[in-house]
Amino acid sequence: MTALANWKAPACLMAALALISFPVYLAWEWIQCQPFFVHRAAPPTLASMLIATLGDVLLTLIAYCAVAAVYGASWPLRNWTFGVWIALLVVALILSIAVETYALQTYRWAYTDAAPLFLGTPISVLPAAQLLVLFPLSFPLARALTRRIVQTGILR
User: Fold this and answer.
1) Closest residue by Cα to residue 76 from 156, 151, 19, 136
2) 13-43 burial by CB neighbour count: b if 16+ within 10 A, else e?
3) 146 near 9, Cβ under 8 Å?
4) Cβ-contact 39, 109 below 8 angstroms
5) Is pLDDT above 60 for 140?
6) Ranges of each domain in the chain
7) Which of 10, 39, 46, 113 has the fewest beta carbons under 10 Å from its own?
8) Which of 49, 56, 37, 47 is nearest to 104 (CA)?
């Protein structure tokens, strides 16, 4: 059984995905939070940005698992098809809208007047844009890192 066919490569991919996604999501959170979001409990702090970033990484891992349930655990290590990209982006859109809806309904945060909204909804476009932009960035980088690790023979 090769490293790509067993559990080690998908586990490595998930770790690589978390490692790569974290700084990218933290930068996104830091840049867009103040101008577009109002936190109900307290103003944005480093701690709140770290928590939001961990949530974003969790959403990324959930998206991986959802797409892996359809395409197999090692799909990111193989060639990507149009269907995989569409599935990943649909999952990103569903997750972002679900999280935002929950947060708005439970008064976790609100939006400033500057936040762009989906037409006819109270939901900001920014969280969906975050996942739709950063998923296609973080998944290929995690794939490249995992392939490199697999090729070195570390995963036996």
Assistant:
1) 136
2) bbebbbebbbebbbebbeebbeebbeeeeee
3) yes
4) yes
5) yes
6) 3-152
7) 113
8) 37
Predicted pLDDT of residue 3? 42
Convert the pLDDT of each residue in 28-79 to its tens digit.
998 988 888 887 666 777 888 898 899 999 999 998 888 888 887 666 667 6
Q: pTM of the full predicted structure? A: 0.84
- DSSP code string of 107-149: TSEEE-TTS-B-TTSS-BHHHHHHHHHHHHHHHHHHHHHHHHH
Q: Which residue's structure tokens are 């577009």? A: 36
pLDDT digits (tens, 9 = 90+) for 105-117: 998 888 989 999 9
Q: Which amino acid is at 151?
A: Q
Gyration radius (Cα) of the chain, Å: 17
Q: For residue 2, is pLDDT > 60?
A: no
Cβ contacts of 8 within 8 Å, gap of 6 or more: 155
